[in-house]
Amino acid sequence: MIFIVLTKRKVLEYIVFLPKMIINVMSFTGKMNLDEYFKRIGFHGSYDKLDLATLKLIHRQHVMSIPFEDLSIHCGEKITMDLEVIFNKMVRSSRGGWCLENNSLFGWVLRQMGYDTTTLGSRVFSSTGGEYHTEETHLINKVIIDGNAYIADVSFGVSFQLWEPLELISGKEQSQAPGVFRLIDKGDMWVLEKTGRKPEVPNPEFAKSSLLDKKQTQVMYSFTLEPREPYHFSQVNHDLQTDPTSLFINKSICSLQTPTGFRALVGWTYSEVTFKPEEGVDVYDMRNVTDDELEEILREKFNVKLQKKLQAVNKKACYTL
């Protein structure tokens, strides 16, 4: 039998060490888990069947619950590709994120559920320059179900946001609430384009707003089927939040899909958009807001709660709703 004699100093050391042990246990139990994510997006169903119906449902719930936003840049926060940081931010802290965050999180969710999921990179098309970005700045996911491939993208935002995954079939018109999407196989790459509807703007003050694009068919981005790892986007993730020419440096953006359309806050311009496919238009109810209104609008309209004060920005840069 061995007796351990504790001195007063040792007793004090254990007393100091014990809370650290408790904290470590608590942080371990706070690891990412699907239940928290499903609660965040309001998904209450079963995911025993890894079928297309379930994928469509969680895809739709995600875009209706977690905003596309770049507000961290304008709050003095750094955006990281660390998945645990992303989970804590978007699932536990009532925030959204841009594509590198949203689609990374969504890809993790799909893999945890058991879906055959591959990360892909895409190059966004510039309508002003008439060419694709030189780098793969947009992250998307490919999902295989029963031998069929689908493209899942929960983070392009505004009127270009997919509500459901697209079947990877060239030339097929796939109608969703925001419009008609088409994936086109160009041989060395795939291209995603969308045909929308004419904007109807009740407020004459915004009839000629630069946020409106009356071109109904637009190319969104191109991609290849080459798998990508998270580190592939590390440099792009840094550049997009530091390069003075980056769209996200020049505009503070937050958008969230709704059952009837979407909401968007770009700088100080708040928009509520209603899709009216039966009339061939989308109604853009737009107005300017003050700095004092920003926090309330983000909380009430987007369920976004910022820890630091937002410095709204709306400098000249090509961006349309």
UniProtKB/TrEMBL annotation:
Main EC class of this protein? transferase
The EC number of this protein is 2.3.1.5
**Name of the molecule in the record:** arylamine N-acetyltransferase
Which keywords fit this entry according to its UniProt record? Acyltransferase, Transferase
Q: What GO molecular function terms would the record report?
A: arylamine N-acetyltransferase activity
Annotated InterPro entries:
Arylamine_N-AcTrfase, Arylamine_NAT_domain_sf, Papain-like_cys_pep_sf
Record keyword Acyltransferase present:
yes
Q: Which Pfam families match?
A: Acetyltransf_2 (PF00797)
Similarity field: Belongs to the arylamine N-acetyltransferase family.
Q: Do you know which PANTHER family this protein is assigned to? A: ARYLAMINE N-ACETYLTRANSFERASE 1 (PTHR11786:SF8), N-HYDROXYARYLAMINE O-ACETYLTRANSFERASE (PTHR11786)
Domain of life of the source: Eukaryota
Kindly give the Gene3D superfamilies that the UniProt entry links to this protein.
3.30.2140.20
